[in-house]
Amino acid sequence: MQSLFHIVLVEPQIPQNTGNIGRLCVAAHTTLHLIHPLGFSTKQKDLKRAGLDYWQYLEVYEWNNLESFWQTYVPNTTHFFFSTKASKVYFDANLKDGGFLYFGREDAGLPPHILESYANQVYKIPMQKGVRSINLATSVGAVLYEGVRQSCIYERWK
């Protein structure tokens, strides 16, 4: 069975976040793509501990940079970018099976040139004003399971 979605983490910095996201990906039959530079080693024990015993079942790929990733997966309408700077909310995204869901660094988000280049495909998770952004793993979980809901795949998982 093909992956339901692809989670693309652009330069993640915190191994525990990536480990938790790996667990989410296994649970939702989703592929994880890690775009370098990373703020940790994928052999780091914190990453494995957060991923628990799921890491061995995770389909995960590492890419030297976003350009090399895009040579294989050319951005199109199935690529969705998530940022606190967006004006549209992720509930309005038509998250298709096989879609690519991009998230940026914990401390900086996605680079401005990506947000500008793909402005029609940038979404946010609604949050109360004045509140710091929610954790990266929590954000990925919210968006990924909205995609699961839209795909109705959960009916087959019962």
TrEMBL record:
Gene3D superfamilies: 3.40.1280.10. It is found in: Cytoplasm. It catalyses: 5-carboxymethylaminomethyluridine(34) in tRNA(Leu) + S-adenosyl-L-methionine = 5-carboxymethylaminomethyl-2'-O-methyluridine(34) in tRNA(Leu) + S-adenosyl-L-homocysteine + H(+); cytidine(34) in tRNA + S-adenosyl-L-methionine = 2'-O-methylcytidine(34) in tRNA + S-adenosyl-L-homocysteine + H(+). Its main location: cytoplasm. GO terms for biological process: wobble position ribose methylation. It is an enzyme of class 2 (transferase). One of its GO terms (cellular component) is cytoplasm. S-adenosyl-L-methionine binds at residues 104, 125, 133. Keywords: Cytoplasm, Methyltransferase, S-adenosyl-L-methionine, Transferase, tRNA processing. Residues 5-145 form the tRNA/rRNA methyltransferase SpoU type domain. Its EC number is 2.1.1.207. It holds the Pfam family SpoU_methylase. GO terms for molecular function: RNA binding; S-adenosylmethionine-dependent methyltransferase activity; tRNA methyltransferase activity. InterPro entries: Alpha/beta_knot_MTases, SpoU_MeTrfase, TrmL, tRNA_m1G_MTases_N. SUPFAM superfamilies: alpha/beta knot. Could methylate the ribose at the nucleotide 34 wobble position in tRNA. PANTHER family: TRNA (CYTIDINE(34)-2'-O)-METHYLTRANSFERASE. Belongs to the class IV-like SAM-binding methyltransferase superfamily. RNA methyltransferase TrmH family. TrmL subfamily. This is Putative tRNA (cytidine(34)-2'-O)-methyltransferase. It comes from Helicobacter trogontum.
